[in-house]
């Protein structure tokens, strides 16, 4: 079976981490974020995947090559200008080999999902649907596309980001398309699947099915979600065959070192050759490769970029530190503060709750 993976977004909400690396390639539990989904797709029977790239396109081929490392055939199709979700699907379909009624799996490159992809494909084929969407259940659907369905699973409406969502079933960003339906998407201009393609198919009376499954699901769009996803992989709440070494809820990658008096926990990832000094406290955080947390520093729910340094006594809560930046002793970064790559914050006693 063939699939298309959408990985062309700029990932603006995850800046500064995404200034140098596209969001789907950010390291999560020691591998690029999208690799967790690739493996699940392969295990569900996908053999050939077309990557729909745009932003920093060449980095995907550098990371995955022809796919043989993962037992997949990977092909890359690049948009000169981002074409939106459905425009990207249409554009990438030039590299598909299947035809007619064949099912094509569409994945977003920034989702972590434990749902049963094979069951979704089976539901699609059983219903002879035009499109079958995975729907997940959330507590508050206002930030998502709310998708009510009839008892037989047929989608009744698409209500995007509404103050009054009709249901807490939401579009989870994983679709099965009938191949011939992809061919109907207009070419040469940006097209949104959520705002244009799905409502258009519904209006035309095409059968669109909602496959509801409330397995683990996370849209890794923001720093807080990034930290949560990494934590859930380290703790095993999000199952991934790539993660095998979680011990006491801490993922130590090759060459990572943690001083015995440091307190590290809550699903923290300590990247390759990263270091945590004596008496430091690191909780539910992600240290990219070669990051350093010096003795006595305090890091909670934060991301420390590649080679970045948190100096003795600094305090970080819900912060994002760009690659190679330094947070000098005494600084407090809280409430979503972000430090841009390479910035050197001198030792001081300043409390930042905004970007630096
Ligand atoms: P933000 O800028 O923070 O909203 O992130 P994003 O650019 O990744 O957008 P969003 O989270 O809505 O994208 C969902 C998925 O679709 C991600 O995997 C993106 O890489 C991908 N995507 C979004 N827009 C495009 C596009 O125009 N072309 C392609 N090929 N992929 C896209």
Automatic annotation (TrEMBL):
Entry EC number(s): 2.7.7.13
Mannose-1-phosphate guanyltransferase C-terminal domain span: 250-330
Keywords, comma-separated and alphabetical: Nucleotidyltransferase, Transferase
SUPFAM superfamilies: Nucleotide-diphospho-sugar transferases (SSF53448)
Entry superkingdom: Bacteria
UniProt keyword annotation of Transcription regulation present: no
Membrane-spanning segments: none
Keyword Transferase annotated: yes
InterPro entries: GMPPB_C (IPR056729), Mannose-1P_guanyltransferase (IPR050486), NTP_transferase_dom (IPR005835), Nucleotide-diphossugar_trans (IPR029044)
All residue ranges annotated as the Nucleotidyl transferase domain in the record: 3-233
Any one GO molecular function term: mannose-1-phosphate guanylyltransferase (GTP) activity
Alphabetical list of PANTHER family matching this protein: SUGAR-1-PHOSPHATE GUANYL TRANSFERASE (PTHR22572)
Family as reported in the entry's similarity comment: Belongs to the transferase hexapeptide repeat family.
Record's protein name: Mannose-1-phosphate guanylyltransferase
Source organism of the structure: Actinomadura viridis
